[in-house]
Amino acid sequence: MCRWLAYTGNAVPLETVLFHARHSLIDQSLHSKLGATTTNGDGFGVGWYQHPHDIPYRYRSVQPAWNDRNLREIARAVHAPMFIAHIRAATHTPVQETNCHPFRHRRWMFVHNGLIQSFPLVRRELLVAVEPARFSAIEGSTDSEAMFYLAMTFGLEVDPVPALERMVGFVEATAKKHGIEPALNMTVCASDGEQLVAVRYSSERKSRSLFHTTSFKHLHELYPDDPRIVAAGEDAYLLVSEPLGDLPEVWAEVPESTAIVVRGAQVEYRDFVPVMP
C-alpha cells in the first residue's frame, strides 16, 4: 500500500524526519517493514504549512522518493512547524501526479494508506455523493481522493472526526449494497494547518499500521544531547505508518478504531465509530 507521516511542533527542516532518521520515510520507500508491500515507489508528495492560516505548500512527483534529487533540496531548505509526507504504492489507479498524496483543498490536506475494496465497482456512486460545488476540484482517479472529498462534503472543515465517521459509514453502506465486505481499510490524516486529525480504522478490524510518539519531553530527558529532539521542542508530535527507529520507548501503536486530534500541546484520543450521514 503506502506509508505516510505527519509532524507538528517547532519548525524543523523537513529532512530531519524524511531523510535523517534511521528508518526514515525515504528508507521506508525501499524497505518498508510493516507495509503490505516492501517497496513504495509509485510517486510521493509532501505538503507543509509556514503559517497556520495559509494555504499549504506542496510538492508531488511520480518519481520514487529515494530517487528524486529535488526532494532532497526542498527537504534541506524548508523549515516548517507542521507537515505531512506520503509515499505511494498504487493499487487500482495509474501512476500520475494527480494521484499522488497529499490531496489539497484550500487549507486542508489529506493522506491515506489502505484501500476501498473493489473501488471501480462503487466509484461512480461514491463520486455522485460529492457536493457539486466541490466536485470540479477532483483531479485524479484514486479512492483516497474520493474519500477526501466525501469527508469535505460531510463537514470536514467544520468538525473533522464526525465528518470522517460519516464518510466511512457512507462507504461501508455503499459497498454493502454491492455485496462488497469488508468495505475499506485505512489510516488517514487530515490537516488545516492548526490541527492534525488522524484515524486508524478498517471494516474488518485489521487496519494498516500506525504509530505515534509517546512524549518529546520524555525524549529530551533520555537524549538531552540529540540536536534533532532539542529542535523539535517538548510539545512536538509525530504520527507515522511505522516507527522511524528501533527505540521502543519512543513509539506507541495507535489502537484499532481510534481517532487522534492534535492541537499544539493538546492531544485527544477518541473512539472512531462510523455512522451513516
Automatic annotation (TrEMBL):
Keywords per UniProt: Glutamine amidotransferase, Hydrolase
Entry EC number(s): 3.5.1.118
GO-annotated molecular function: hydrolase activity
Chain ranges of the Glutamine amidotransferase type-2 domain: 2-265
Stored InterPro entries: EgtC-like, Gamma-glu_amide_hydrolase, GATase_2_dom, Ntn_hydrolases_N
Spans traversing the lipid bilayer: none
Pfam families: GATase_4
SUPFAM superfamilies reported in the protein's UniProt record: N-terminal nucleophile aminohydrolases (Ntn hydrolases) (SSF56235)
Signal peptide: none
Name recorded for this polypeptide: Gamma-glutamyl-hercynylcysteine sulfoxide hydrolase
Species assigned in the record: Paraburkholderia caffeinitolerans
